[in-house]
Write a structure and sequence with these properties.
The protein has helices at about 1-5, 15-50, 65-70, 80-85, 90-105, 115-125, 135-155, 160-190. The chain is mainly alpha-helical.
Length: about 200
């Protein structure tokens, strides 16, 4: 009965076991050596990739002041009452200065300015004057922020075309103009003294 419980492990004769065992060990060693070789060759490729020099992108001359002047959009500026609304809002005036330089064809602010841009918009949102706080103005600030990031990323991208940069510049100028319009409307709306029926 014990004979029926024994299992045959292999059909290889016992005299060939040492040879088969050596072949299995050789196969393991070959696979291990191949793995180590692949690991070192991958590390070498990574080191070669690190030594590549990053080329700096200069899109400063792609869109000129004349191109910006030829853009077709309605520009709104702050009226006198709205200017009093934002007189202490330094971040707004910083953005206004960037927009003024942009209209003159000066894109230098957008060269690696992501950190400064984040900080400016963070402060812009935090330091919004109480008189300028409204959902409509917050929405315009968010759109303006998005357009700033879009232009900044396109400006620093080597494959950006003149058409893309011009379009993105126009979108940014329109967004800033719409922020101004919304602030003008808020001042106008706040000035209306609505009497409730009694």
């Amino acid at each position: 009965m014990t004979a029926s419980h024994t299992t045959i492990k292999s059909t290889i004769p016992i005299s060939l076991y040492p040879i088969v065992l050596k072949l299995k060990m050789m196969r393991t060693q070959i696979l291990l050596a191949l793995g180590v070789f692949m690991l070192f060759s991958a590390c070498k490729d990574n080191q070669e990739n690190k030594t590549l020099v990053e080329t700096e992108v200069d899109n400063s001359g792609v869109v000129s002041e004349e191109d910006i002047e030829n853009l077709n959009f309605t520009e709104f500026t702050l009226d006198q009452k709205a200017q009093s609304l934002v007189k202490d809002w330094t971040q707004y005036y910083k953005l206004e200065g960037i927009i003024t330089n942009l209209k003159a064809g000066d894109f230098s602010y957008f060269q690696d300015s992501e950190k400064d841009l984040k900080e400016t918009f963070k402060e812009l949102k935090v330091n919004t004057p109480e008189t300028a706080k409204s959902p409509s103005i917050s929405a315009r600030v968010l759109v303006l922020e998005t357009k700033f990031y879009k232009l900044e990323s396109l400006y620093n991208l080597a494959s950006s075309s003149e058409e893309e940069l011009t379009q993105s510049t126009q979108e940014l100028l329109v967004a800033f103009s719409n922020l101004n319009l919304q602030m003008n409307k808020k001042v106008e709306f706040d000035a209306i003294n609505i009497q409730k029926p009694q």
